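Sequence in, structure out. First:
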Amino acid sequence: MVMPDIKDGMPKRSFLPQAILSKLPFSTLRLFELKGIFHARENSSMERVLVNALAACERAPHLGESKQCVGSVEDMIDFAVSVLGHNVVVRSTKNANGSKQNVMIGSVKEINGGEVTNLVSCHQRMYPYLLY
């Protein structure tokens, strides 16, 4: 199989400190306030960014899914602990640079003896600050 690049195409942004994040509105019911804070004009790309992220975050979770949108490191940790408990292992991709050449997988290591485990999978959302 060809190994593609899996680099993140999103713009660089940062999580906000919880103390700041807790003061910002985050709801379609408060879209007017958000548009003012982020200078989003009517029918602008920023308005679409806000609306799309809020819609995705306010969508009901799928059956069996635990779901939460987080904009701070503290909230990310709290969510992961609420799903996984305190005994966790963080795993991440080491290198996002693909070779664009054929690769052969040499070995696969079992995790937890091959037993199915709980996991938290995070997906970025386009938003003025880092939002998962």
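Second:
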Amino acid sequence: MTISASQWGSPTASRRALLIHGLTMSSQSWEGIAQLLVADGFFVVAPNLLGHAWRQGTDYRISNIAEDLRSYFAMGTSYDVIIGHSLGGPVALSLLPFLPNTQETTVILLDPALELTEEKMKINTQFLLCEMSRIRTPEEHMAENPTWSRRDCISRVLGMAMYDRAAIEILRQNTPWSFTGLLKNIPPNVKITVLISDPKFNPFLDYVPLEVENVNSKVLTGIGHWIQYELPHAIMDAIPLPRAKL
């Protein structure tokens, strides 16, 4: 059970959002989106996943990472919006059985890591090992990603610095990496939107769902894997207005 998270806004806000970060990131990587959500009337919670933000573990299967977050649904707690990025995509989908079926929930997946071939797994593992061997500076990230804010670059560095080196097992323990099946049998009260980066700018993923029943998918031309940094308003546009404003 995790007790490591970031929160923004008032717990008495009329709407709630749960944000699930990606591999080698942390809850603080959601700062920009969280502030937009708070301005739109949300209370925002972003947990730190196992293996991240100094959290250690041994069982890094996606199902166990999700189970570790069960406490966020205690006493029937529900969320109007759940957002998951990359690794956070399959984790977010694994959380759906914890939701009460009495409230509509919008799930927004940002470049979700649902399918990886064996070759892509090897490439990602090697990339991760290289990144861990020398953590790049905020200035290096800014030079490589001119659309990122300095805050985003710092959060990227902090996420990598706080990542448990043993959590490389996330890749190894989830082989074969195949989670598209989580998109089957989605509860009727859950609406899913998938925002997909431009394949020209995404070396990390093999497949993201474009033609899945009851899933609204959109490719963001010219946008890379870090959608929350590069085009945050595309995320906000995918969130339904509260019924009072319709």
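Remark: The CA atoms of residues 47 and 207 lie 26 Å apart.
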